Here is the input.
Amino acid sequence: MRVVGGRLKGRVLQGPRSDAIRPTSDRLRETIFNILAHGLGKHGIEGDVVTGARVLDLFAGTGALAIEALSRGAAYAVLVDEGTEARGLQRGHVEALGLGGICRILRRDATKLGPVTPFEPFTLAFCDPPYGKGLGERALRSALDGGWLAPGAIVILEERAGLEIVLPEPLVRLDQRAAGEGQILIGMLPAG
Here is the structure.
């Protein structure tokens, strides 16, 4: 695995040793970030939503999605994962890439986030849970209930292909695409 774009492009990211972590492939990360940079105009969202973003990475695994966002100009990221191996990989990446001042790792159940304090709400959220368990929808509900998402926040949820995804209200679906064995759904928290 490598960082696909931005100032850290080409830097190596260590993969997991177990099957408990399913990293988002380099190719899918590139697709996601191309959509975020150029593909939301038809929904009235102009320009790149990554630059300057405050990123929340739920079920962060290796941290590749948040690291990719930071490489492409995001201002800050919080990686949330309960797994010991995942947090170890994240710490290694943050240290090796010099991201300590703009990245925080939380050991927390993504489906039970609690209130956002001491953080400010996030403008971009990634949610890549274990497939087929409904955890993504529960984590997004938790993020909404705890005030983790800023008005206008963009949400990317990855799930197994063929499963119906129902975003918790008031999130609205902007786009949905097949991606190999998975699918990605792009949603937004309305600003008003």
